[in-house]
Amino acid sequence: MKPVQIAAQLYTCRDLLKTPKDIAQTLARVRQAGYTAVQLSGLGPIAEEELVKILEGEGLTCCATHEPSLKIVEEPEAVIERLKKLGCHFTAYPGPIGVDFASLESVDAWIARLDAAGAKFAQAGITLCYHNHHMEFRRLADMTILERIYQKTAPANLQGEIDTYWVQYGGGDILSWCQRLEGRLPLLHLKDYRVTDDNKPDYAEIGNGNLDFSRILPAAEKSGCTWFIVEQDTCPGDPVDSLAQSYRHLLTLCS
Question: Which of 99, 142, 155, 242 to pair with 106, CA 20 to 30 A apart?
Fold first, then answer.
């Protein structure tokens, strides 16, 4: 992993991104923290053209986005148009909506929609990825739902955005998932996992939790990961400060 491959997932700063002015100010701070790339998510209303100007002005690359789950499968053409305006080649399905995870029929129908949408993205030169949470580690029939997602979709149509925290939370093996998605893992969400004083799992800045990123990063890199994206769903204070702390730690692990 090179420093230029480290990106910030802006969902971390969602409370600081309500207006175009907020967005401009926060992106300036993210750039000052060291990041040269961001994944767009959690932003308030802003025209793509204005957003591109802000990003270019700060020297930030839009490496990927998260788009609404239903829009990805129901209106892929609209998402493709947005991504082309942003000059972005990766987006990720952020999480399941309207799926009965107890029903094999419901799950398989949903996976088929993901695959069909992904084919349209691929035809437009854009890669659709899947962002997991913990619920995909529920077993259904003879495998976990996450295994089923990747087994029943074509690699050209759906690739991975593995989230380290949620794999850990769901009882999966992060290294194994980085390895099994070789050639199919362009994006990785770096999110540390800690246990609080009241014995509950929680998010942490990279290096403040229990995950061994000195092993995770090389495994993901070997599988072809392009973007290593820092995300922290909740922060103890200012989220940009947490992003900055994570970035500094990741620099110590860069090759």
Answer: 155
The SS3 call for residue 66 is strand
Q: For residues 211, 12, 189 and 29, what is the CA-based torsion angle, rounded to 10 degrees?
A: -100
Cβ pair 104, 141 in contact under 8 A: yes
**How is residue 111 written in tokens?**
């996976």
Which residues neighbour 63 within 8 Å (Cβ) at sequence distance 6 or greater?
7, 37, 38, 39, 88, 90, 187, 226, 227, 229
Domain range list for the chain: 3-251
Check if the beta carbon of residue 192 is closer than 8 Å to that of residue 206. yes
pTM surpassing 0.85? yes
* Domain 3-251 bears CATH identifier 3.30.9.10: no
Model pLDDT for residues 114-152, shown as the tens digit of each residue: 999 999 999 999 999 999 999 999 999 999 999 999 999
- What is the C-alpha to C-alpha distance for residues 25 and 235, in angstroms, rounded to an integer? 19
